[in-house]
Amino acid sequence: MARSDTRYREAYNRILAYCETLPPKAPIPSETSLAEIAGVSRTVIRRCLARMEELGLISWQGRDKHLLRAPLAEDRIAVPETPSDKNDLEQRFLDWVLRFDVPANTPLSVAELSRTFGVAQHDLKEFLAGLSRFGLVSRRPQGGWMLLGFTKDFAIELSDFRSVLELNAVTQVAEVPVDHPVWAALAQLRQDHLALKNAIDTDFHEFSKLDERFHLAINSVVRNRFIAEFQKVISLIFHYHYMWDKTEEKDRNAAAIDEHIAIIDALEARDAEAARLAAQRHLRTSKTTLLSSLRHHDLG
Amino acid sequence: MARSDTRYREAYNRILAYCETLPPKAPIPSETSLAEIAGVSRTVIRRCLARMEELGLISWQGRDKHLLRAPLAEDRIAVPETPSDKNDLEQRFLDWVLRFDVPANTPLSVAELSRTFGVAQHDLKEFLAGLSRFGLVSRRPQGGWMLLGFTKDFAIELSDFRSVLELNAVTQVAEVPVDHPVWAALAQLRQDHLALKNAIDTDFHEFSKLDERFHLAINSVVRNRFIAEFQKVISLIFHYHYMWDKTEEKDRNAAAIDEHIAIIDALEARDAEAARLAAQRHLRTSKTTLLSSLRHHDLG
DNA sequence: TTTATGTATTAAATAATTAAATGCAAGACT
DNA sequence: AGTCTTGCATTTAATTATTTAATACATAAA
């Protein structure tokens, strides 16, 4: 019960490592500077110093602190390893939802999710609270959460929103100076598209990666924290759905390659209007594909 | 320590109210149906029944439950009133940030916020986690949260994002059928704008409300959960900043009225391109105003 | 066979608890 | 004097423990 002392333990080892760089019998800097070195508060530093004194590593009386002997490997303190990264929780969660085809309106148990993802319950709750801002999950009246996503309405609204963002991005690309890295990226993408088009009969499943690269390049010109946040989620969802809808995959991908090239053509000609139209055409296809992949799933 | 029994207390009173509708000595329905009536689980219902039996309100043996006497006012159980609504927390929080001009990079104390807003700490944490999705707040390495918002970059990106959403909305309005309620709303708005323009010398501060109504009407045609979520935050921020930047308020508002009317003109002529251009002009003005309001704050 | 109840298990909300951060005053050193 | 350092006290935050509530399943009654 009560919070862990991981912060202290990590700080302790960090301070120990710092002391190894000091000459023998060197004076030890002030608590404040040690706190800065370890990136923690003075409270934690004092705990560290207390332990170091106890172990006979240092002498400590008031502001007189001296190193008595060089720290050894066995002086280090054990840190409870974090069971699982908490940063890529979003990636892993969406992956889980899509990979296992978790249907819409599924109740989500925080306790269970906490186990499967190896993340503390309240961290998960915070995460879900964040997702609820995207309308992906919501609180249930009787407590807990529920997955809302991946109904038809959701897919339509997601596609529409994606279109709005992406058309904006395309328009901006057309107005960007020639020395912007996006032009090099697009030139490379054109070659890779043409190469894949030639080998489409065998390598058509390679398109998914290419698609992601293409849209990432287009959106890279937009520097906007709000849009960036959404793009992460959007691209993940589209990516997976494309991968799993296997109906007419080869034909779909071949068509998409042409659509991508049409966009690149228009952009390199700096024809913003043509690029918008080409992008619109492509996004309409994407929307249809996403919707049909849902329909296939509904039917079994 | 441990969760409150508010759910039980509310259910109890609800069941009592239901029993008042029953005739004397009536049999009481099954636990499952009572659970449905009160909107809680059977566990809670059984607690309710136990208390009702204890008070002599009902007899209860196995599945034989009968009303013994009509419930009285004093049979009701006290429910701890929720100190403060938790739903409008967003409104109140943003209001607080903007009204007190909380500067960017201010550490936010969950404990303190919890007191000022009368909301439990973990509810606040969930709320902040949600806001972090909008890039308004973020976690601090040493724990807690910090307000990021309302730097120049933030304002620029917010304005740009707003423009993207709003230009999309304007385009959609132009394509909406004649019987859509937006047309009636716009007709009314045109009149109100003209009326305010005539009385601009005295009533210019009335514009803020009109502005909000105008943008709400435009955006009402877009049915999209993602966009709707953002619009709430965006409109609130712009609304407050407009209200507080008092420099040349009268002139600004007069100009904005003309810009609004220009948009309405183009829309009623179903000229999507002209409407986009008019909206673009207006949004550019808005952005400038928002930025200058920040600049004024920085200097004083 | 259906429906209701009894019982057990699991999950969720929330306060208690400890770790850590912060604030302030007094003292030491330059 | 003035700055830096420490000692001490207070406040805050993370995390567990605990209670309430929901759910699952078995059993019994209709």
From TrEMBL, chains A, B:
<dbReference type="GO" id="GO:0003700">
    <property type="term" value="F:DNA-binding transcription factor activity"/>
</dbReference>
<dbReference type="InterPro" id="IPR008920">
    <property type="entry name" value="TF_FadR/GntR_C"/>
</dbReference>
<dbReference type="InterPro" id="IPR036388">
    <property type="entry name" value="WH-like_DNA-bd_sf"/>
</dbReference>
<keyword id="KW-0805">Transcription regulation</keyword>
<dbReference type="GO" id="GO:0003677">
    <property type="term" value="F:DNA binding"/>
</dbReference>
<feature type="domain" description="GntR C-terminal">
    <location>
        <begin position="157"/>
        <end position="285"/>
    </location>
</feature>
<dbReference type="Pfam" id="PF07729">
    <property type="entry name" value="FCD"/>
</dbReference>
<dbReference type="Pfam" id="PF00392">
    <property type="entry name" value="GntR"/>
</dbReference>
<keyword id="KW-0238">DNA-binding</keyword>
<dbReference type="InterPro" id="IPR036390">
    <property type="entry name" value="WH_DNA-bd_sf"/>
</dbReference>
<protein>
    <submittedName>
        <fullName>GntR family transcriptional regulator</fullName>
    </submittedName>
</protein>
<dbReference type="InterPro" id="IPR000524">
    <property type="entry name" value="Tscrpt_reg_HTH_GntR"/>
</dbReference>
<dbReference type="InterPro" id="IPR011711">
    <property type="entry name" value="GntR_C"/>
</dbReference>
<keyword id="KW-0804">Transcription</keyword>
